[in-house]
Inverse folding.
């Protein structure tokens, strides 16, 4: 797969661009929805947890920026895994009628979600400018590295979910429930300092919680995870990706029979 990645890179990019264009086709606002949809949902969350629960007075003066950063990263995970999961089924004609590696469909679908996320970063930059908060160079570099690590995790999940979804349609319902659980099991709407300290290590075992927490901490507070913890998480995500590729190769051989 890695050796043929450059061979099919143009196909993957074209499929990702096509998904991005078709997603907002025939809508009045078009590509503005890529910014407007997550922004509206964020504003609702920010009003509830910033004004009603008043998390700003709980040691998080930049709670709005933390919530926005965490929410957009989680939204990237949710949409990326959802797109990757349905990649084989939604592009069934390509699977059954054209001889092409099936993994390219999964990669292109997740890449489409990455394009949407990059578009949403415009909102993040705008809010940081509005609040007069300038991240450090180290914070920006760590955030960019976190995006890459999060994409690897999304890709690994998608390689496992895609062939399962073709054979068992209930997988989408189960995954939707799990994503909702992950949202509240990750420090997104609440700061990690609200929880007892002994729970922190257990919560940050999750790659999603680890990436989201230290991404926003690095951007806003210039606080980073310890180097050996970062190395362990990177190796864990890469190992998970390798395992998912092996499982995808095994489970996708006869997938055309179920489409």
């Amino acid at each position: 797969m890695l050796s043929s990645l450059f061979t099919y890179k143009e196909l993957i990019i074209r499929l990702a661009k096509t998904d991005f264009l078709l997603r907002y086709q025939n809508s009045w606002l078009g590509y503005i929805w890529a910014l407007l949809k997550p922004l509206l949902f964020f504003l609702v969350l920010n009003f509830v947890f910033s004004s009603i629960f008043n998390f700003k007075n709980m040691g998080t003066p930049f709670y709005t920026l933390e919530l926005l950063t965490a929410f957009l990263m989680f939204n990237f995970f949710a949409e990326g895994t959802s797109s990757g999961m349905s990649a084989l089924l939604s592009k069934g004609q390509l699977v059954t009628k054209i001889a092409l590696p099936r993994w390219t469909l999964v990669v292109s679908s997740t890449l489409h979600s990455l394009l949407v996320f990059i578009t949403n970063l415009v909102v993040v930059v705008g809010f940081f400018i509005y609040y007069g908060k300038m991240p450090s160079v180290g914070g920006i570099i760590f955030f960019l590295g976190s995006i890459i690590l999060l994409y690897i995790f999304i890709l690994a999940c998608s390689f496992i979910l895609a062939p399962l979804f073709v054979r068992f349609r209930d997988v989408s319902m189960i995954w939707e429930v799990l994503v909702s659980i992950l949202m509240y099991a990750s420090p997104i709407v609440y700061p990690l300092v609200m929880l007892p300290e002994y729970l922190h290590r257990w919560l940050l075992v999750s790659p999603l919680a680890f990436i989201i927490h230290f991404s926003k901490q690095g951007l806003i507070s210039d606080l980073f995870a310890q180097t050996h913890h970062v190395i362990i998480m990177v190796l864990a995500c890469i190992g998970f990706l390798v395992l998912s590729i092996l499982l995808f190769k095994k489970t996708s051989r006869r997938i055309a029979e179920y489409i």
